[in-house]
Design goal:
Helix 5 packs antiparallel against helix 10. The strands form two sheets. This protein has a nine-stranded mixed β-sheet with strand order 14-13-12-11-7-10-9-8-15. A six-stranded parallel β-sheet has the order 3-2-1-4-5-6, with helices on both faces. The protein has 346 residues and is of the alpha/beta class. It contains ten helices and 15 strands.
Length: 346
């Protein structure tokens, strides 16, 4: 049993982490850091509640620390947990600074502990689907790739993610997912250009971004808008043999929000009217369309692999070392946007 300490008890903790930690028998959430002890006790009657991570780590010998606090706290809290010889699962973004990320990877290695970043979007059903399409060669060589997380949130809300402050804004919220998926598919780019903007009236942090990753043989466009009220384009892949387009987001987030049981037959399955379409030429050169059934999403697999990594020393589902380049791209994108030019990745 992996004794687990959960740092934070807000939306991220209760929606994206606790359901899996409670469902899987490998984990036991024994300690929670929160300013809302009554809410914690209502959900986890047996858990000990503290207001300070430092205090809790001095008292409790836990195996895993799960960090779900505001972005600027991720690095310092991960460091504290590793210094107490705990495995760590930290929410994205990993850190707000690539040097801090590299130092944490080194510390985890020296401590012999797992340092995993919650890049659950590596296990989105549609991402698994396009990985398979690319791997099977159905699109040929990819020349253009577009990936978007658009929403309709035209009015800012009063919360830390949207207020002014380090690590706030949509770029630090959704950018890590989009960049990580692109790097998983294509590796590190040669150059990065970006346009990161605050377009909402009275907005205190960025709410719209478009990033371009430049490769020698392809171009990758990543973006998010707060003003998309219609069907959201998720992926557009264009290759030498055909193209693939898919709208709508992976269903697992909405299902978690709705507290759908993992045992429900609909869990992680995409609705039939939301699958993507492959358009390719046949042997005679005529174009034809084929609906590609979206693979089932696997957020449960993320936590299962994390458990195996902790118990057996296997490679984690999103090891910190694999995420350092994501933070480097984000740093470079911020500079490129400010300078209004493409910058070399090195």
């Amino acid at each position: 049993m992996i004794s687990t300490l959960l740092v934070g008890f807000g939306f991220s903790a209760t929606t994206f982490h606790l359901p899996f930690l409670n469902y899987l028998p490998q984990f036991s959430v024994d300690v929670v850091i929160s300013s809302k002890p009554d809410a914690v006790k209502a959900a986890l009657p047996h858990a000990e509640v503290y207001s300070s991570l430092d205090e809790a780590l001095k008292i409790h010998d836990v195996d895993l620390v799960v960090i779900t606090t505001p972005n600027h706290l991720h690095g310092p809290q991960a460091k504290l947990a590793l210094e107490h010889s705990c495995h760590v699962l930290v929410e994205k973004p990993f850190t707000l600074d690539s040097k801090e990320a590299e130092d944490l990877v080194t510390l985890a290695k020296n401590q012999g502990k797992q340092l995993c970043v919650y890049h659950n979007r590596r296990f989105d059903g549609d991402f698994l689907t396009i990985k398979q399409l690319i791997g099977d060669g159905k699109l040929g060589e990819i020349k253009c790739f577009e990936s978007r997380f658009d929403r309709f949130r035209p009015v800012p809300r009063d919360r830390w993610r949207e207020n002014a402050g380090p690590g706030s804004g949509i770029f630090w919220d959704l950018g890590p997912h989009l960049i990580d998926q692109a790097l998983q598919l294509f590796g590190q780019p040669e150059e990065v250009s970006a346009n990161i903007l605050t377009l909402r009236e009275n907005g205190q942090s960025d709410d719209t971004f478009d990033i371009t990753l430049h490769y020698g043989d392809k171009i990758v466009k990543l973006g998010s808008s707060a003003f998309q009220a219609g069907a959201t384009l998720r992926y557009d892949l264009q290759g030498t043999k055909g193209s693939f387009r898919k709208f709508y987001l992976d269903p697992q987030e909405d299902q978690l929000r709705a507290a759908l049981s993992f045992d429900d037959e609909c869990w992680a399955k995409t609705n039939e009217d939301q699958h993507g379409v492959l358009t390719a030429a046949n042997e005679s050169g005529e174009l034809s369309e084929e609906t590609i059934t979206t693979l089932k999403g696997e957020y449960l697999t993320f936590f299962n692999r994390l458990a195996h990594a902790i118990e057996d020393g296997n490679f984690s589902p999103a090891d910190g070392s694999s995420v350092v380049p994501v933070i480097k791209v984000m740093e470079l994108a911020l500079k490129a946007s400010a300078q209004k030019t493409a910058l070399a990745f090195n």
